[in-house]
Each structure stands twice: as structure tokens, then as C-alpha cells.
Recover the amino acids of this structure.
């Protein structure tokens, strides 16, 4: 471990925490900025054991685009689920599907699981012990294979590009 | 004009939150019911928070950004709690209309619960007998 990484173990987490602090206090007074930076520096140092792997974002623009796609999908998901709830519950076809994972880092897997739960009619239910499969409950789906392909292409591939080496 | 916009947002939020709660009533099994509160609610609460942010930014001096934080935390915590609930439900083998895949279901689980049931039943019997026996001895 180099001197620099010991001094600042999480170069991405630190400014993020400082930004969160400024949002919490709802001010950009110099004192608050200083306090935010101090918190952003010390919290990663104190919680280093929880975050052994360093987070790296390889493609920031892909991350921005991913967030946009996700927000759009969340809004669509709300309408889809609202229609399913208001429709006839007997016509729903719930299924469990096993989603094979290509992701390996735990951060990327948790982000994928979160995204799946936030988007149309799917809730991630369990990660298999070898971390190769994610069990997903689907509210109503006639074509599970197509859904797996969509999830892999729309969410998993960008996450892989952002957080992992391909 | 602004007030009409805000009213629209609040109404949308209320309707979606209501539909989410309605899902709890209408859907058939535990896993399906999870879908209502985790999703229909995010847009519902989202619009309410946007309305709140716009209102307080226009009324007071300065921008109100607390709502951004609430949205962020909501988007992180809602899926995590849904995931944990689903996992607990799978572990308990709750009744599901969807077929649970074989390698994820626990065929051993039934035996475990039977053993647990037997263990639970046994102590009460012992308790009963011990409760009864001392008086006999004392008498």
C-alpha cells in the first residue's frame, strides 16, 4: 500500500461524503465545506475495514448515462406496476428467474440488485452462495428468457464497463 | 401557475402512493405484494419530494435540497429492505404462486421446522409434568 492510498484510501468516497454533508446542512458556508471535507477524509479512514476494495469508476460518462436510463426506467416501472395492480390479479403470471451473473465485484452486484428491484415488475430475492446467480421474482412475465437478455444488456453490461475491467 | 403545478405533483404522488398500498391488498402472495410498496411508492414519494423542494425554494431564500437526500436514501433503502424481505420469505418457504427454483428452495427446511416443532413441543410437556409432579411429591 502506497503512502498516498494510506492517506486517502477512497478518493471517490471522500468527496461524495463531503457533498452529502453539504446537502444535509443545506449550506455552502466555508466552515461547513471545511467540516464536510474533514468528515469525508476521516470517515473512510475509520471505516477502512468495511471497504477493503478501492472503488474505481472507469467510465464516468457511462455512469451518468446509466443513471439517466435507470431514472427513466423507474418512472416507467411505476406506471407498469400501477397498471398491473389495478388490473385483474388473476391474470398475473408471477415467476422466479435465475439470472446468471458476469459481475464479480460486490459493489457492482449490489448496484445491479438495487436496479433490478427499482425497475419494472422485478424484485431481486437472493444471491446464490457462489455469487454466480441472482434469483429474481417477476410480477408478470410471459417470456423470461427475453427478460434475462434485457436485464443483462441494459443494466449488467454498463455496470461491468463502469466498475470492472473487461 | 406554480401552485397548479405543485398541486398536480402532490396529487400524482398521493395517487401512486395509494396504488402502492392498494397492491398490498389486491396481490395474492407475499412475493407479489413486495412489488407494490417498493415501486409504485418511489414515484409517489418522489413527486411529493419534488413538490416540497420547489415550494420551499420559492418561498424561502435559497434552495432547499434536503429532498434530494431523502430521494437518494429512499432509492438505496427500499430495494435493500425488499431484498431482505424476499430472502427471509424464501428461507421460511412461504407459499408462492410462482414456482421456486429447485436449487434455491430448501428441501431440508421442512425437516428442520419439524424438528423445531418437536423441540418446542417437548419442553412444554416436561414443564407440565414437572408442574404436576412436585405437588404429588409434597403431598
Amino acid at each position: 500500500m502506497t503512502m498516498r492510498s494510506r492517506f486517502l484510501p477512497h478518493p471517490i468516497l471522500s468527496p461524495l461524503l463531503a457533498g452529502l454533508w453539504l446537502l444535509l446542512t443545506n449550506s455552502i458556508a466555508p466552515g461547513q465545506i471545511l467540516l464536510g471535507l474533514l468528515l469525508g477524509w476521516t470517515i473512510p479512514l475509520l471505516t477502512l475495514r468495511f471497504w477493503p476494495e478501492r472503488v474505481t469508476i472507469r467510465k464516468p460518462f457511462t455512469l451518468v448515462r446509466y443513471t439517466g436510463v435507470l431514472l427513466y426506467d423507474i418512472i416507467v416501472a411505476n406506471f407498469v406496476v400501477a397498471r398491473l395492480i389495478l388490473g385483474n390479479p388473476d391474470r398475473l403470471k408471477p415467476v422466479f428467474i435465475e439470472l446468471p451473473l458476469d459481475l464479480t465485484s460486490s459493489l457492482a452486484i449490489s448496484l445491479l440488485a438495487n436496479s433490478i428491484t427499482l425497475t419494472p415488475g422485478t424484485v431481486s430475492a437472493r444471491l446464490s452462495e457462489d455469487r454466480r446467480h441472482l434469483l429474481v421474482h417477476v410480477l408478470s412475465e410471459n417470456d423470461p428468457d427475453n427478460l434475462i437478455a434485457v436485464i443483462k444488456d441494459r443494466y449488467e453490461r454498463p455496470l461491468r464497463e463502469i466498475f470492472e475491467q473487461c | 401557475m406554480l401552485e397548479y403545478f405543485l398541486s398536480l405533483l402532490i396529487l400524482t404522488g398521493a395517487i401512486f402512493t395509494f396504488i402502492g398500498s392498494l397492491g398490498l391488498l389486491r396481490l395474492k402472495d407475499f412475493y407479489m405484494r413486495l412489488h407494490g410498496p417498493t415501486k409504485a411508492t418511489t414515484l409517489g414519494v418522489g413527486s411529493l419530494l419534488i413538490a416540497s423542494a420547489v415550494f420551499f425554494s420559492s418561498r424561502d431564500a435559497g434552495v432547499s435540497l434536503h429532498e434530494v437526500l431523502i430521494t437518494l436514501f429512499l432509492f438505496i433503502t427500499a430495494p435493500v429492505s425488499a431484498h431482505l424481505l424476499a430472502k427471509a420469505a424464501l428461507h421460511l418457504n412461504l407459499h408462492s404462486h410462482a414456482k421456486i427454483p429447485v436449487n434455491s428452495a430448501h428441501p431440508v427446511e421442512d425437516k428442520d421446522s419439524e424438528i423445531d416443532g418437536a423441540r418446542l413441543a417437548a419442553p412444554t410437556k416436561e414443564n407440565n409434568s414437572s408442574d404436576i409432579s412436585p405437588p404429588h411429591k409434597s403431598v
